[in-house]
Amino acid sequence: MSDDVPEGTPPAGGPPEEDAGSTAYVPRRVTTGGSTTGSTTLKAAPPGGQGRRKPRAGRHNSALERRFARMGWIFTAPALVVVLAVTLFPIAFSVAMSLSNVTVSSGGFQLSGVTTDNYSLLLGSARWQHALVFTVLYTVGTVVAELVLGTMIALVLERLSGSRGWMMALLLLPWAMITVVSAQLWAYMYNGIYGVLTALSNGLTGEPRQFLGTPGPAILSMAVADVWKTTPFVAIIVLAGLMMLPTDVVEAARVDGAGSWTAFWRVRLPLLRPALTIAVLFRILQAFGIFDLPFVLTGGGPGDATESLALLGWQVMFTNLDFGPGAAVAASTAALVLVGCLVFLRAFRARVGDEETTA
Amino acid sequence: MTPVPRLKVRFTWVHAAALLIAAFVAAPLYWMAASSFKPQNEIGANPPTVWPDSGTWSNYRDAFVTNNFGTYLLNSAIVSITATILVLGLSTFAGYALARLPLRGKAPVMISLLMISLFPTIALAAPLFLLMRELGWLNSYQGLVLVYAALNVPFAVWILRNFFLGIPKEMEEVAWVDGASPLRTVLSVILPQAAPGVFTAAIFTFTACWTEFLIALTLNTADSYRTMPVGLALFGSQFTVPYGTIFAAATVSVLPIALLVLVFRRAVVSGLTAGAVKG
């Protein structure tokens, strides 16, 4: 099991590391096979590496190497400490909270005992079951729609020559907008009395339509608002992937008599898989944690039709102040996200780590 | 069939499709900007007016003079800019170390960073609320800055590491031969060359902080510490939503991001694709 991330720059052309005295740069690939520092942690960096040079068979320069390694950990430590303190510790605490009886009083906050009550409460709750089904179906539906639309948009933009830059700038605007803003905007446009979309649909079909008033249309309307904001993200990633494709492969397919339709399905789409995988992965994660849009657009309603897992968790915790069950919602949501991503990656047989680290 | 008419057909088809896409993306944005100039009675007009009949700045006055959107905007700016600076400081060194220095255990570090950065923030909300309450950092700048920094360091490290890998090694090697320490190497050799990468990371972090809602809603509920998203979400009562005021504030909140994105389009696009293809 190698700990090394494959380096992007190939070691070709580097000077051979023979002279321990003069080669004062880091070896490109550190493979100290029998090293005892396998579990180097932040604090366990070898002390005084500079002075004590331990000659190792076939390896020179190890003191310098260790000095650089120590420097590396010093460089990395602050970032890791901040990330761990603010994410890993809370995640662990969330799990602990979900597994105990939580009592909130004016004096403070107490965890007692180990129990699975919070989770059994969850499993038996129709509201949670509904939120789970809604979140899963909503995620699948919007991500598929965004993927299809995003790919179509990318294909159109690829054929544009002059105005592509401007189109991309325009596409970036919804993506960079505050989600709360777009939610307020769509809420206004969907408004049953003076919304522009209500007026338009009234003019087209001749009958008044309430977009957010009944469960089915409300879910669909929310999905449209979501697709508007996030499809551009998918389109831009796919477009970047398209522009990176080797043109000779497509040319070869053309020469072999493939039409542009066949060339797309048989040649280009398979080659696009890494780009599509990344786009879908990011979108699944975001969509599954959706909170801002239903919070503002529908408040989870009508009834609890558009209540996502994140919205349910937040309301249980901060509106009802039921921290135990709320933590169970939150922790199970996080676990489901991880499982979902692993399943997706397995299904696509994509190795994201490899693609990402080989820059 | 000759190729010429086929080309012609495709040409118009592409342009029609592009126009349709542009209209779908731009129409809601136009509606927001236009509505921000409509007086109260025109906001609620049925049928709605496409162009403001009697354009007015009163919504902007209402948002920033009568109401507290100026404060929310300032809070958002303080938190986002501070967090961005912090993230860049932390991630530049971490990204450099992960790209160049001989660390054991790089792969686990990178993969756990990625996993953490993808975690749904709802799982963090309650523990962070309790933590900040213990620290007395509810309704403060530092609490939100710390959380935003931690949430955005992973992606910034990814972007910067990928960028550093693309910089030729020769200059660093010269610096090392000359006896420069890694710290000095980063500051005087790497940073000047990595400016575009640092910039991309900065835009991403700033945008993420500027738009974040869930954590801000959880930690900073006091009116004087609300950020723009929280202020926009909680404005108005249960029965009336003053859309004119909201859209005036919203339009102002979109402007800095729009400028960033329009001016630095390339940096944003390269950051978006940093995960899938090289930056």
What is the makeup of the main sheet of chain B?
A: none
Query: What's the rounded overall pLDDT mean of chain B?
Result: 85
Helix content of chain B: over 70%
- The CATH homologous superfamily of the largest domain in chain A corresponds to MetI-like
Tally of separate helices of chain B = 13
What are the low-pLDDT stretches of chain A, counting only 5+ consecutive residues below 50? 1-58, 351-359
Radius of gyration of chain A: 27 Å
CATH architecture of the largest domain in chain A: Orthogonal Bundle
Largest sheet of chain A: 2 strands, antiparallel
What is the CATH first-level class name of chain B? Answer: Mainly Alpha
Average residue pLDDT of chain A: 77
Strand order, largest beta sheet of chain A: 1-2
Overall structural class of chain B, as computed from helix and strand content, comes to mainly alpha
- Uncertain parts of chain B: 275-279
Q: What is the terminal-to-terminal distance of chain A? A: 21 Å
CATH homologous superfamily classification of chain B: MetI-like
Number of strands of chain B: 0
